[in-house]
């Protein structure tokens, strides 16, 4: 059962459990992560408190006024005043609104209509009046009965000034026709005309000299004003039809900022069919007079007087010139106080919350890069973890992490009452954050393929986070607010996800800020269609980017992931015919390589022939068949290309352990890398359990175990957790899994003393090695590669490990590289000595020793004077003896086996001992080491061996 490859869901489950355990270990980091938004929110609340307390000061409080200051501090304040100064009016309660004399809206002197080339109506004054500000205020009249119209319009503009009674200023102002060129505001609690720099005009049919007066009035103890009253001539112009009036108003309208093109006309009246029994009138008024900050309805505040003016004129026509009717006051309704609010959190929210959300990015990125840097991803892949489950679980894992993070953030922000969260529709927030965190994770996956070092990735990611926040807050926002900046460019900028995020948060903050200040709602779905609201574009951009980035990241991952062997167009490969997975026939290329074969040693040639036969008649019991495997690294920087592996042919049956010996740089690692799918062979191929390594690596992975040269372990997982994870990947379940893990732990001596449950990061080098070996063997893989498994082990552990491997090799094929001859001898059934990219010899250890040894090594140590005697002794034993080593009295000789009998040697030494002192001597059979050195030296005559 364990041999069946694990299903998608089994793999996903294994990875998920591993990640959860990993996460459990990371509690501290997670708490720190979640604390970040909490702290930021708290900081915002504190800042808000500070602002509120500042706003609550005496000078901002309604009805209080500082009456005595010392320097900057107020030492005495007086309260109970209704509205102490102009700044307080907007926020204070106004139970008794002041009464204002109703005014007409009149154009400012420099804009009043005059005759020009563009405005060629004869009865307007000459443009010269603009120079001294004496232009008349023009009103246009029309109607069916002109004589009737003239009378009424004549009544509208008085010919004399009614003096102002200083104790009843507003009332007596109403006896005149007063107007102002100032713009109204969005409330009329204070009529701006009485507080503006511009004078109040009174219309008169003819202005006399001394026509400027001054009025003063008192609103409260704190507010008293003096205002100039200036005469303006009222010019009545009769037109024959309403369309003439219309035309003139239209042409007078300000089209540019050129003063001579502006011809403002105060109002137009059409008396229609009115007569002595019926009054029917329509009035043109200009609603465009408004301050930028206000809303459109504002100018209406000055319409009542223009209606009243014409009604009074008609009544006067009916009742006679002595009739006096006054429209004395207008006043706002009373209002309660509206405290000053300044929602700092909403205002700063954009920047702060951008940081909070961007925080997640480095976390996903570094975690992905960590697995890449530590080569854990490849390790998992080599043990059968497919790309599908890896992507699904990693993605899901980051998504879950992000969602939890965002939930904490929004809930906490809402709980402490930040308007940013509470005022905007939660469903919009959810959609926005959800799309963004998905985009962010996809980006992390994409960028993870660029980085290979966690430190670089972390530094760059954090620079990105803070840089993005600052750029967005201080540059991008500036463009967004600048209405003249082309919207198209803003959208281009929003293609950068950090800016898109900022834009979304900015919109939320704008809605909550305005909502708080004006008492309106925050953002609702309906608001998305507002032209000013950038949320809709942001959502679309982010969604499209998410899909694109995710597909691209997956594509790049497939392309770059060292474990896969795919061309940039691998997607199209799907549609091509699949190559047969069975063994291929030896190709014609083989004939050419015969030339090369001639130079090979007979044992190597024999192996090559065996492989060729095997390829013709596939036999299942061959676990590994390498067919003329070659690896050539292309030449770089003018260096010639390097042949790392030159046509390796090798067949390994089930149950064999093959040892690969060879000096450093001989190409062993290149060979292993091809076999485990890290690199692609330049030519030739290998079949593992009948599957071609060029095309079916994924299938091979399910029955493969690797013990890499450097331990690839998760520092924070325990040994047991490692084995559980890899066991699950190999489709072990339930009790089989626990048993396998325990057995495995026991076999590598990691079971007792709680070692199994210690974190791998705390293991010694030897323990890590043993764990790596255990990992490579768990789940009963059919083929195992071990790269120097016993390096760094103490002799006891090494023996232990050897026993494990010996037991393990019984039903699987193991390829083992080592530098320890002892290990090779103990473990391997066959050995190959690999030098300069090709096998120099192959055979079992005994054969090799026999073939390449064939000598005894005789060592003798005497005093320097007796050296000659020793040499003579050896010559007597064997004339073909060969001195291989000589240093101050110690000499080593090679004695051909066929020349000497061991007994003769002993006898000779006994005799020699009588004639001179022998401090030490020895006779040894050739060791594998001697074989190795010999073979290597023969193959690399110019190389110095290390
Ligand atoms: C026009 O109005 C004047 C003044 O009220 C009146 O005397 C005259 O009869 C009116 N003309 C017409 C045609 O109604
Ligand atoms: C001015 O107004 C006050 C109060 O309405 C009134 O008592 C006084 O008679 C007025 N004076 C004149 C000269 O009309
Ligand atoms: C518009 O409002 C500003 C500030 O409230 C004021 O200074 C300015 O005079 C106003 N403009 C006009 C034409 O009233
Ligand atoms: C109406 O008011 C606007 C704003 O001051 C001005 O530009 C325009 O010329 C005025 N129209 C007329 C016909 O006076
Ligand atoms: C007032 O004038 C309008 C437009 O000329 C006209 O349609 C309407 O009938 C008139 N009203 C009366 C009561 O004559």
TrEMBL record:
Database matches in InterPro entries: AAA+_ATPase, ABC2_TM, ABC_transporter-like_ATP-bd, ABC_transporter-like_CS, ABCA, P-loop_NTPase
Keyword Nucleotide-binding tagged: yes
Entry keyword annotation includes Nucleus: no
Localization per Swiss-Prot or TrEMBL: Membrane
Residue runs in coiled coils: none
GO molecular function: ABC-type transporter activity; ATP binding; ATP hydrolysis activity; lipid transporter activity
Signal peptide annotation: none
Start and end residues of each ABC transporter domain: 624-861
Pfam families xref list: ABC2_membrane_3, ABC_tran, ABCA12_C
UniProt keyword annotations, A-Z: ATP-binding, Membrane, Nucleotide-binding, Transmembrane, Transmembrane helix
PROSITE patterns: ABC_TRANSPORTER_1, ABC_TRANSPORTER_2
Similarity comment: family membership: Belongs to the ABC transporter superfamily. ABCA family. CPR flippase (TC 3.A.1.211) subfamily.
Protein's name in the database: ABC transporter domain-containing protein
Species this chain originates from: Vigna angularis var. angularis
